[in-house]
Recover the amino acids of this structure.
């Protein structure tokens, strides 16, 4: 079974991902794969350079993410083009890794995808798990974690799909309003339930 793990900014998705990994569950991280997909020599890298030119490269020929971000920030056409290059490469690599884990005898694989619902990637997974935090707690955590003012933190939260909207879309909602230890216990119980269901089937 492939589980799509998602959340919102400062809801604790990365913490959950780390806990699951510690439990011996293979975790495929979309962000890591997206970074690797645009390394020199990769197909997506060549396409980006061909389209955007060498001015989006650093002196060591790796991608200048800040520069590329500037280029696409106010240009929806160029942003779309970048997504058309990067997204298929990331999806293809994630599928390949998941198939490898499953064929190696792992009954469960986690795909950690921050924009699972926004990018309409639910077709890649069997079930969706959402790490949910009450919006008030999410705001406080983000301010504490990154040193943002309330206004800065709110603008970042508002740039994403509202966490309550994601709650409506997820198969399983894991409340993360308390401690890391409590989140760990919830995830362990969930894994036991999945194992039990798998045994019955």
């Amino acid at each position: 079974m492939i589980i799509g793990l998602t959340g919102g900014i400062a809801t604790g998705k990365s913490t959950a991902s780390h806990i699951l990994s510690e439990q011996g569950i293979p975790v495929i991280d979309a962000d890591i794969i997206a970074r690797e997909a645009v390394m020199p020599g990769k197909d997506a890298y060549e396409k980006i350079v061909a389209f955007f030119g060498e001015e989006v490269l650093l002196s060591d020929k790796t991608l200048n993410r800040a520069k590329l971000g500037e280029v696409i920030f106010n240009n929806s056409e160029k942003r779309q083009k970048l997504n058309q290059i990067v997204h298929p490469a990331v999806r293809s690599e994630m599928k390949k890794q998941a198939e490898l884990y499953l064929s190696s005898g792992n009954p469960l694989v986690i795909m950690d995808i921050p924009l699972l619902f926004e990018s309409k990637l639910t077709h890649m997974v069997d079930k969706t798990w959402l790490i949910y935090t009450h919006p008030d707690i999410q705001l406080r955590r983000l301010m504490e974690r990154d040193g943002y003012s309330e206004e800065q933190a709110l603008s970042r939260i508002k740039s994403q799909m509202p966490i309550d909207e994601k709650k409506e879309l997820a198969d399983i909602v894991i409340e993360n309003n308390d401690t890391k230890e409590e989140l760990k216990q919830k995830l362990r119980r969930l894994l036991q339930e999945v194992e039990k269901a798998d045994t019955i089937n």
Remarks:
- DSSP finds nine helices and five strands in the chain.
- The longest helix spans residues 76-103.
